[in-house]
Write a structure and sequence with these properties.
Largest sheet: 7 strands, mixed
Strand order of the largest sheet: 4-3-2-5-1-6-7
Distance between the termini: 30 Å
CATH architecture of the largest domain: 3-Layer(aba) Sandwich
Order of helices and strands: EHEEEHEHEHEHEEEEEEE
Number of strands: 14
Radius of gyration: 19 Å
Low-confidence stretches: none
Number of domains: 2
Shape: globular
Structural class: alpha/beta
Mean pLDDT: 93
Helix content: 10-25%
CATH superfamily of the largest domain: P-loop containing nucleotide triphosphate hydrolases
Strand content: 25-35%
Length: 288
């Protein structure tokens, strides 16, 4: 990982502040992931065991596209990043929360609960960059705050773009709010760069894949409306967490089976499959 550039604004983040669930908000390319990593490591350096909850399914720090991801420090005081402790993943199935806000919120809550069950003493939540009211970003962030009940919300903004979300929080005694300006060192990435990063991540993952054939009458299958050749899917454990991703090669409706490719070594732990709207061309290694 690259070295962190620490903003002088962050000096107000003391040990008393860095407790409970901490939510980092901001548009894309405002430095949210950098700040979230700093928070994680500062909490660890204070002798606690933090968790990092990555809720950006389009540009994930910890996992694969279309998933939300959690990682805990190995032990209290361990500031290694990415964290080397227990992990969990939740499949949303899309690379944006638009049109998928309910599974996005459910996934965040499931991962928060998992972090607490695994012994996390503080949870840093890195959010996606959707904040525009017209696209549902305002509602998504407001209800994420209600659901996760953070002790602290930290907002990064260039101007006043976050104010529709922040204005009521400034008057809500249930949560502490800190408002930081975006660092001039925050790097903007183009749409093409974002697509390329997702493509490289998925391509590298799927290249490791082997073929599996799954009988649909022996397993729970969700979101059948997305089932088709090239569909991205999640192979899930008995708690609904994602063990790995796969790509459909062929659907044999007569035999009731799905041929898929996934790096997962076997199907013994797979209790369910969930399809998503993302399509992946195995031969050309591109999103369709």
């Amino acid at each position: 990982m690259s070295e962190l550039v620490v903003s002088p604004q962050w000096a107000v983040l003391d040990g008393e502040t860095l407790q409970g669930t901490i939510l980092v908000l901001g548009e894309s390319d405002t430095g949210k992931s950098t700040l979230a990593r700093y928070l994680f490591q500062e909490i660890a350096r204070r002798g606690m065991r933090p968790a990092y909850l990555d809720s950006d399914m389009g540009q994930s720090t910890l996992g694969l596209p279309a998933t939300l991801n959690l990682a805990l420090a190995q032990d209290a005081g361990d500031d290694e990043f990415p964290p080397g402790g227990p992990r969990a993943s939740f499949f949303v199935g899309a690379i944006t929360p638009r049109g998928h806000m309910l599974p996005t919120l459910v996934g965040c809550k499931r991962l928060q609960d998992r972090a607490l069950a695994l012994g996390a003493q503080a949870i840093v939540v890195d959010t996606n960059g959707l904040v525009e009211r017209a696209q549902g970003g305002k509602a998504l962030k407001e209800w994420k705050i209600e659901l996760l009940a953070p002790a602290l919300v930290i907002a990064l903004q260039r101007g006043s773009e976050m104010e529709p979300i922040l204005w009521p929080l400034r008057r809500d005694g249930r949560v502490r709010l800190l408002d930081f300006r975006v660092s001039p060192q925050a790097v903007r990435r183009s749409r093409e760069q974002r697509i390329a990063r997702r493509r490289e991540c998925l391509a590298a993952y799927v290249r490791q894949a082997r073929q599996h054939v799954v009988a649909m009458n022996r397993i729970a299958v969700y979101d059948l409306e997305y089932m088709a050749p090239s569909a991205l899917l999640a192979l899930q454990d008995d708690e609904g967490f994602c063990l790995g991703l796969g790509v459909v090669q062929e659907v044999d409706r007569g035999a009731g089976s799905i041929a898929l490719r996934s790096p997962l070594p076997g199907m013994d732990r797979v209790a369910s499959i969930r399809f998503g709207p993302v399509r992946w061309d195995l031969s050309r290694e591109i999103e369709l």
